[in-house]
Amino acid sequence: MDLDFTPAEREFRAEVRDWLARHVPAAPLPSMDTGEGFEAHREWERLLAADRLSVVSWPVEYGGRGASLVEWLIFEEEYWAAGAPGRVGQNGIFLLAPTIFSYGTAEQRERFLPAMARADEVWAQAWSEPEAGSDLAALRSRAERVEGGWRLYGQKTWSSRACHADWGFGLFRSDPASARHRGLTYFMFPLADVTVRPIAQLDGEHGFAELFFDGVEIPDDLVLGAPGEGWRIAMATTSSERGLTLRSPGRFTATADRLVRLARSDGTDPVLADQVARAWLDAEAYRLHTFGTARRLAAGEEIGSASSMGKVFWSELDVRMHTLALRLLGERGLLDGGAPGAEDGGRWLDGFLFSLAGPIYAGTNEIQRNIIAERVLGLPR
Amino acid sequence: MNFAFTDDQLALAATVREVLAAHCPARAARTERTPAWSRLAEIGLFGLLVPEEHDGLGLGLLDAVLAFEETGRVALPGPVAETAVAAPVLLAGDPLLGKLAAGSLRVSVRVGDQVYSPDADLADLLVVERDGVPYAVTPGRARLTPQSGVDRSRRLFAVDFDLESDAESDGVTRLTAPVAPAIRAVTVAVAAQLVGAARHLLETSVGHALTRRQFGVQIGSFQAVKHLLADVAVAVEFAAPLVYAAAFAVDRGLPTAGRDVAAAKAAAGEAAELAARTALQVHGAIGYTEELDLHLWLARVWSLSAAYGGTALHRSRLRAEILGSAGPVRWP
């Protein structure tokens, strides 16, 4: 065990830190859930991509640097510590891309990955349906076989980024005689062909949408993996979502450090100060644990269901940290970015509202605890 | 950055685990005060941290931390952490180190935040701090007052001794080694024992949830029980890396070592207390009996969580380190 970074890792950190210091916008970008803000975030992604920083762990040929997982974690630490903009392309980069790398054809990799790395095409996820949330296998949207391809019918919901994104991905029942996990196929589809109805979230922004498919025509080359294999392929994606890729420790260590700075004043209530210390400690625990995970992945091991432990841990830590910040700030903490009295441009409030989604998305924490109990601990279903 | 143990470190832990499985069954803790001691001495556990010139292995805490997790997993009785981890630091340079490495010198330690000496009646030597100065006291010079308590396989004693003027007399030796490094090392070892105990408690609770049937089904099929146990799994999973990182920081003498040790002890203590509380709840009334071995682990978790500073004390240190300075919060 060596917790020192190698000279190459330190050099990489210095380069990323320097780049961010020169490029991170001084004022926050407008919300990515507005048309204007979405395009501003897309431009930011292009700036990252121009210096091969949008997808550092991808191979060079697709726009990355072939960076190691540890280097990617370093990138993330620096990225969030610098207060850089949220990643508008993250559904594609962190959820779909690992699946394309594993199950896509060479043509699909060539067609989609470089455009994703440059944010020329931004992706939305489309897992949930009105009657299939935690019970995803209950999904009803279907794909009908036609000459040379498929027609998609049905409805998806809670589709993050769908209001402004270019493409979507999700599961459709391609075998009408099938039930549950069988007979599902993983499709990629252009959102231009889909009816998108924005849904206002509790902060009033259109962060997700309903999607209506009315016989959308999809050629065969937009099927990811083999028809009927969709469940297995999607599970590979969702464990990326829960585990390492979507929520790197850098986010939480950055939040913990901001929280500590907020609490570093003489008048801080000792009870809250104690909780701040604990939150800091938990962020550090998640960081160290993830370096261990990165080591195991690099050695060829699979993380599988253990990723559910990380999801429970980081999502509940994130809620705890933002709740603490609001308690420290009192009424000021509840002001948004438009208010002259807001702390840090209303970032704590934005972060608080966003953190509340964490225990719900990517499989609720109740589902995660079932997975931990059944697949990690071996308790009966 | 390479967060992984070496094959040697894993092999040592596996050996300790095998030895303890064979020589420290749960019933041993009810009747024996130092089960498996000579077996552990044979495989070199007491010489791990003793320098090679004193017939030890000259290894570091990181080499030993997984082995200590194993001693916690079986709730091993006896002053093992004190003898194997604290004593090599406190007795640095002392000719007694050879005996210590061989496992023929049991040491009880009361330094730092400790109020009592664990297993002092078994000790061949007591290290006792008085007014900030550590003394090595032979049993003949020490007055022990038993302080009976919940952990009957880790007994506590108030220790007193007479110091004639300020001079050293037979059987009382002023030690020159600084105390803080020994406290840090033994605190990490105890944190590792807490992680090990928590792992055992989780395993045994899962075992019970698989075998105990009510309403015609295994109680582990109930979501309420599953979620209790899942929370323990998460707590243990994220406490362990802090303990390993603290061992690394202590070995390297990093400026963050004090903070990292506090983090390790606070997190390991909390995880183990959650594991204990949950284990009792999942076992139900049978867990609340003397007949079942579970209480041995419960008592051990309680006593080790309080030893060498409890969670509240360590978190207050952490708070002072993190909130009390204006410096950078994390990495440089």
Describe this structure as you would to a colleague.
- The complex is a heterodimer of chains A (381) and B (332).
- Helices cover 46% and strands 14% of the residues of chain A.
- By secondary structure, chain A is α+β, with helices and mostly antiparallel strands.
- Chain A folds into three domains: 7-88, Acyl-CoA dehydrogenase/oxidase, N-terminal domain (Butyryl-Coa Dehydrogenase, subunit A, domain 1), CATH 1.10.540.10; 123-231, Butyryl-CoA Dehydrogenase, subunit A, domain 2; 243-376, Butyryl-CoA Dehydrogenase, subunit A, domain 3 (Up-down Bundle).
- In chain A, the strands form two sheets. In chain A, strands 1-4-5-8 form a four-stranded mixed beta sheet.
- In chain A, a hairpin with an 8-residue loop joins strand 6 (195-199) and strand 7.
- Chain A is globular, with a radius of gyration of 21 Å.
- In chain B, helix 5 packs antiparallel against helix 7 (179-211) and helix 9 packs antiparallel against helix 11.
- In chain B, strands 1-3-4-7 form a four-stranded mixed beta sheet, covered by helices on one side.
- Chain B has a domain at 179-323: Butyryl-CoA Dehydrogenase, subunit A, domain 3 (Up-down Bundle).
- The interface between A and B is large, with 53 and 47 residues.
Keywords:
heterodimer, A: alpha+beta, Butyryl-Coa Dehydrogenase, subunit A, domain 1, 4-stranded mixed sheet, globular, B: 332 residues, 3-stranded antiparallel sheet, 11 helices
